[in-house]
Amino acid sequence: MQELLQSLLQTGLDEGCFPAAATSIGRGAEVYARHAAGRLWLPDGPHANLVTRWDLASLTKILAPTPLALLAIEQGRLTLDDTLGRFFPAPASHSGITIRQLMTHTSGITPHVLLELQPGCTPDTVVDTVLALPLEGKAGIPRYSCLGYIVLGRILEQVYGQPLDVLARQFVFDPLGMTHAEFNPPGENIAATEVNPLTGEFLIGVVHDENARFLGGISANAGLFGDLNDCARFAQMLAQQGEGLLSPATMRKATLNYTPGHDVRRGLGFHLGGTEGNYLGDLFPADSFGHTGFTGTSIAVDPHSGLWAVLLTNRVHPTRDNEKHLRFRRRFHNAIYAAYSRGEC
After folding, report:
1. Is 0.90 topped by the overall pTM?
2. What would the CATH number be for the domain defined by 2-58+169-341?
3. Which one of 25, 35, 175, 189 is separated from 235 by 20 to 30 angstroms, measured CA to CA?
């Protein structure tokens, strides 16, 4: 497996899919192989290594607010049928939106706007701004919404009475030993993303997502940085039915398909396999699950075998106008699963 990972990442580099990447593959609690390759920024930045931190982008959604919401359900603080109107003064069109709909991206909340361009919007008034926007979809129809997850994050802060970054550290990262997972990370050995429009320099340790950046780098839709070990520990938990964090009953509930009959299959926070063109590729079973991040990151888990794969890249460096990683990611997962099926791990 080690040679396969080296070959796959070198292929990605040679094809211009990303300037740097790191990957870890395992089954259950076991790690089969790990590898890092490429340069953290072009043309001559430091080489990526196993403890490089990456802008995880929308992997933030399943690494922080999703487990926090699931824990809140387990602790009796929250139910999937709780509505926005319970937590915020919301217009009638929005007040009946449920936690379930926020987590499955079926709320109809506008998928994306640049918050910094919305009149009067500040980090303190972001929920008011989002809820003032007209719904762009019908309840029950899946439409991926970063704004919906930002609202979910503010609900969690209200439920727990602490900021999202503090909650994530206390309830998720520390219990799982995710020592380098952090919002607004200090230090070096961080992969670069795009150019900072304010300085003209590469974003390094500053979140790439504009809305998360507007919110001070701490948001439920994006903002988290982490290394290979952090993401592997989280994947190991998922592959072991929540061991060390969540109950098996919760994991079963979280990985059901809540969008049957649609061209995307959504769990509670998780992206499920089984659809054409899925990032999990052609060989991972249909009920495999995980998530991706805009910067070129992903986690994939097969709940039957316990096989998991973490792939971290900075494909948006030096520009986001590079989608070669999309096909590479599917090829990557195909090769990994085939090797596992042949018993080569």
Report:
1. yes
2. 3.40.710.10
3. 189
